[in-house]
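dumping this here before i forget
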Amino acid sequence: PVEASSVILQHIRCAWNQEMATQDETLKMENQDIFLTVPASFDAVARELTVKAAKMAGLENITLLEEPQAAFYSWIEAAGDRWRDIVKEGDLVLICDVGGGTSDFSLIRVLADNGELALERIAVGDHLLVGGDNMDLALAYYVSNAMAKKGVKLDSWQMRGLIHSCRKAKEKIFINSENQEFPLTILGRGSSLIGGTIKTKISAKEVESLILDGFFPECSITDRPIVQQKTGIKELGLSYESDPSVTRNLAKFIGRRAGGKPEIPTAIFFNGGVMKAPQVRKRIKDLLVSWGRSDETPGNSFHEAGQTSVREIETTDFDLSVARGAAYYGIIRQEGGIRIRGGLGRSYYIGVAASMPAVPGMPPPVKALCVAPFGMEEGTDAMLSKKEFVLVVGEPVKFDLMESSIRHDDEIGTMVEHWEEEIEEITSIETILDGEKGSVVPVTIEIKVTAVGTLEFWCVAKDSGQRWKLEFNVRERNDFGA
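structure:
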């Protein structure tokens, strides 16, 4: 993924330079401040890989920006001063971003700060590899199965053409409800490319049923994605969701808040090509209202306020809002303006083996030590001065890195003994510390959230102050997801 992303960025850089910098070297892309947008659910490893890909492409002045925030910045820019009239203090805004390949959720709280409204991103969803591509594939398989029952079988080349036709059908039907059906044309093969053309159709009712009931089914706030038993061996590739239900994943995001009750959003901001469909937006808004009114969420602010609807904050462009918002964010970074408070979108932990007598057949239990809490701001650092570790220099040393998207109250140094339900392992950090092989060095751990949005871990010797950077080991990862 890093090499592929780097090639794409190199292509963009060359195209920019040919168009913009033929007469002026200072206008070259590598000399500009560049804002790369990433899913809000990208963890520390995925962000590090993104920056690595950019540097491989010759781009050094990089800042990472979460895509849901970028989309919201686009709305702020378009609304101007009116944004303060559209949202109010106490609002909880859900950003629901469903694009071609991923679904991304974020929650933004509207606060009062010295008499002015302020915005704070308070929650980020898990990485979900489900989006419009899944929907196009589902439609294509539905059509191909119907054709197979009539004795018409498609090969892989024709199947790709059918997927493309189903994508266009989906977009036409959802955008214009007057389209009751859409013709599908599949080319033949070889010398019968035209003469062997296959024609069929799909109705608006079939499309709406497959998309709404398959990907946005009605569900309860207590419902969770269906977890299927994993196959012992599978192809190397991306970790796609076993349950494509966006709404059940949304229920998990809203309902699974560590130590607290679900809190239903009072407003929603949609982004991504899938959200062009008014039927999809209505289904999600109706579900949020039903969750807010239900007896399963007693005491929630939505219910107590007697709300009857969730306000939709209208976007100006479902396709380009992320790009426009990122550009606007770059402007306000230089000139000032309203900023969304964010920081780290999850809490990070290092696995620490408990100190206890050895028991045959049972490894020491692992505790989770919080080293970077949720919301830790870019450009800040912290030292675990009260936690001391002993490292062996000259030999490989390994740390297990873990994360949580729901434990927002842990502080640096918090030790969690029973963490399996709320904290997940994501990768390992390993290094060989310079020094005489076999020697031990008492160290503490220093954490830094860089200005570009990545996370750094350092070992610092207690006596000499010597520092070693702990590098991510990503050999076991096969995608950019959490």
